[in-house]
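Forwarding these from the shared drive since the link keeps breaking.
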Amino acid sequence: MTELCSVVLAAGVGRRLRPLTGMVAKALCPVGNVALLDLALGRLAGLGLAGPAQVAVNAWYLADQVASAVGRRAHLSVESGPAPLGTAGALGALRDWIDGRGVLVGNADAYLAGGDLRALLAGWDGRGTRLLGTPGPPEEFGRYRFAGYSLLPWHRVRGLDAVPAELVRTMWRREEADGELTVVPYGGTYLDTGTPVDYLAANLHAAGPDGCLVAPDALVTGGARHAVIGAGAVVEGRVERCVVWPGGYVGPDEYLTGAIRYGSSGTVTAPAPDEGAPE
């Protein structure tokens, strides 16, 4: 297989997750009490890709937070314009760093579990473009929805510039039309965590069926069922199908369900997809 590097895209603003992303970069939002960025870097390390020579992370929104979290674990590309460069522009800014290698590109907000990312790499000759896919909806490529990771050949990446642009328009649709795009099915669970509903679903999946993940220094004196409770959080009331962020507080008279609690009283509701649907 051709020499490979990887880029984790972590520059997004995460508007659909506000107000959570008003305080924390989307890539640093915790899923299962682990930051999404850490999950992505761990996933790449499992493929043998680690360190600033092999892995890069881009940043724009709340870039200082992302830079601090990355530390020396990866090469950092900080975008300084009035808006992020997008998925294609980010690779254009990293073109000299990529320098002739194939590149595995992952969205920091992709939650993957139960499948093997190696299927995307197996037998790759360094020529065609591959996308990880999961059966839709929405059906974006044939019957598949893009599942957060793509594998790109150098001869395609070298033509990208550091200007705002997206891979789906500058590369993927053209290759699809030319028959040079392959969708590799992902055998596990994929969620993009970009909305409160999917973000909560990813956390509850990480907790396991009806399970709870409670940080060692969290204090739960009330009740918790199918929940993720972060570091330093205090739950005196009851939570069910909830995420309590690090340092969050649930008062003794509160009963939260289908929600994300941040701080002492901030709440983002995220009902299950069938809740509130017309009968």
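-- next protein --
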Amino acid sequence: MEQNSFLERQFKLSENKTTVKTEVMAGITTFMTMSYILAVNPSMLSEAGMDQGAVFTATILASALATILMAFMANYPFALSAGMGLNAYFAYTVVLGMGHDWSYALTAVFIEGIIFILMSLFNVREAIFHSIPMTLKKAVSVGIGLFIAMIGMVNAGLITGDGGTIVAIGDLTAPTSIVAIFGLLLIGVLLHHKVKGGLLIGTLASTVLAIILGVTSLPSQILSLPPSIEPVAFKLQWSNIFTREMFAVVFAFLFVDVFDTIGTLIGVSTKADMLDENGDLPKLGPALLSDAIGTTVGSLLGTSTITTYVESASGVADGGRTGLTALTTACLFLISLFLFPIFAIIPASATAPALITVGLFMMSPIKDIDFDNYTESIPAFLTIVMMPFAYSIAEGIVWGITSYVVLNLVTGKREKVSILMIILAILFVIYKIFG
């Protein structure tokens, strides 16, 4: 491996029993399975009033930076980008739900990123991680999955609030519904046959059908210079940061980001056999720091929270074991900067199948919840259902933590509740009463 001596020294390929070819191919696979975010994230944040092209560029730059940091600081095959669920909370809860400007939401993401950096440097994340019961960690993933799936269905017109009911089936013969149903079925077939990049292929194929049905139109060009980030970059808002509402928003971003990232790192690392004899992940600190820096810089550039992607498991399954896999994915992100005309024509009905499918992926932890233990299952259930029912990730977290603390204290299970959990529950109750 003389000709690749730098890569060998930097990424310790021989030590990790891998090769340049294997790592590069794994990086391509990872990019293919997560590149749908380049269509979904700009589309979603544009609903919050942000410039779609600027968000496209900001998402790529933040994703590439964080993934490169992961490659060189931690030497792990994990890629990062704007987190699904976190972008939904950004657009649909903070902006459209609470009525804040998108710059307010970006400020919350920036504050969260700074806190996450400090937590990573001072190892505070372990204390928080151990204080929250595993049941609620699992429930948060499931609840976000339902929330994301509902967003996809609403965007495609499959679900509507019209017709005199709270929720109803939309017009399934409408072009947008046909596009979404076609895409969902196609993605299902592709996933069944383990086709790499199934979500992206399904999204692109749905876009072709959308063009045929008149939902969208062909691009005037294929390649272009990247859209400027000027409309969204460095647009933070500092006028209302010392408020209880900002605290709640930042906490929700931080909570989901911390547990989503750590859960993804541990899950994918287990698949790659990277955990040590104690079940710990070496260099967890640098990996989390890469995530935190990505989030902070991403908020300045103009995109929502950056987090480690569970789709990295696809590259690991293809043999990726080092940061060279992540570096390859980052390079492909940068190449995508020049493909905005393609991603810009993808309508919400074509990205809806990807959202619904990601919702499915996030449902799997539900099997680990003990539904026969009601002091565990009731808080988990409330966490799960309040996210889609209240159309808010934060509400699910508030209901879950508060009910967990109350149920376990009144049933004499004080040892299951940490001081931090009690403090959080009290703050949530106070906020609900006086907020």
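The beta strands are 80-82, 159-160, 168-169, 306-308. The chain has a mean pLDDT of 88.

- D.
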